[in-house]
Amino acid sequence: MKHALSPQQLGRGPLRPTPPDSPAPSGPDDGTSRPIRSVGPLGGLGCAAAGYAVFQFLFEVLPASVGGEAAKYLIASVGGLGTALSAWFTAALLRARATAPAPRPLPQPTPGTIPPTDAHAPGPLPQLFAATYDTLVGELSVVDDPERGRLVGWSHSLGESSPSRPTSVGTAYGLQTMLELGTTDGRLSTGELADTLWRLRLPGGGWSARSQGARARPEVTALVLGALARAGASRGGRLAREVDLCTAAFTRDADRAGRESTHVMTTVLRGLLRAAPECDALPVLREALVEGAVSDPHRDRLRCWGYRLDSPRGRPSPVHTAQALLALDRAARVLGESPEARAAREDGVRWLLSCPDAPHHVCRDLENRREEVRRPRPDDPARHEVLNVRLFTASWVVRALLCEGSLEVARRDGREETWRELLDGAAAGVRAGQQDGIWTWGRGESTELRCPLWMTYQGVSALRAHAVWTYRPDEAAPAR
Questions:
Q1: Do 216 and 249 touch, CB atoms closer than 8 A?
Q2: What is the pTM of this model?
Q3: Does 296 map to a domain?
Q4: 61 near 54, Cβ under 8 Å?
Q5: DSSP bridge pairs for 369
Q6: Separation between Cα atoms, residue 468 and residue 59, nearest integer Å
Q7: pLDDT tens track for 287-308
Q8: How many other CB atoms are there within 10 angstroms of residue 248's CB atom?
Q9: Domain-located, residue 73
């Protein structure tokens, strides 16, 4: 079965699973009766004719004893008008049914596959991962750049209408997705992808998003460095030099907007924890994240995080709280943990567990978010560079709840069942956002549906982590 999605599927229409209860549509040559179509203006004349016929009939058959000519005329008129209206409403109903969109057919099982009800059949996750990998292979872009050499990778979003060219962000997320999938069939090369990321490095060092121009930005640089380190790059040499450039550019004086953004701060922390766990800047950044927490009066004054780490911090945010928890949990394992950092992290876990909505897979805490990171342009400080950030909330919540520290807090508070319910609900929310292993961003903000690679990476990462956590080999059915 071919799982790779065409550009038309990826960029021009919603990627949703086929409804399980939809009957097969009737085609013009399938031998079934076609729906009755209502008539237009002639149909309206027919309704009037039916009403007039009833009026004539009643006027002739009613006896004179009902109250004279005026009463007979009134009764016959009411009867004729009622008949005409009934005929018109019937025609309108038939027209609505005839013009309704045809239902989608039921998905047909692939010949030779094991039915999903078989206790010994593989679950849906391997099929989903295989579909993701096939799409990555089909969407891979290879460009011979006269200045940078051979570029192998992906653009920001799958299925872009314009000719795709590998970008730093798309290739970094594609590389990490490939590592999450764990595929080794050779159609994608980790080495080629890593080489491309090095070739996409800016002349002055570092990396930036496609919309940020030729100045390196710490969040993109940390993302790329984390991907390179995860792919096996040595921590010395050029990786260490890029880490130094990244940390030097991520100060309050050099990048105030970035230091005040929860999204940027946590992205830099996670990337540097992978690429340079002994970096001197990590404890400083971790403490800045802790100090940026805010107390929520609506949830027992528990500390959590908004989209900013400085005033105005904005409203408490589930997705930013989840991002902070994930970064703090990883920092605790690498750096150790101060009492203040531990207290803030545990408060954040309790804040997530206090979600008042149910069921959790459709609750407000899992709504996707958008924000902007605005920075003064280096060539014109009066103007701003704007980075649009979209946040896949359910995936962040899954990964935050799956931190060992989160489960420890839930067990200590006697809320493990609540933790499990929220985790399963968030995982269900992640699964609902994909079709054939590809996630689509298009929830009501515009008619354009895009398939950003970062979203597919986060979906795959969350589902893989959830599957590993829920694996119980002692409860598996015995092999035959």
A1: yes
A2: 0.74
A3: no
A4: no
A5: 391
A6: 81
A7: 999 999 999 999 999 999 999 9
A8: 12
A9: yes
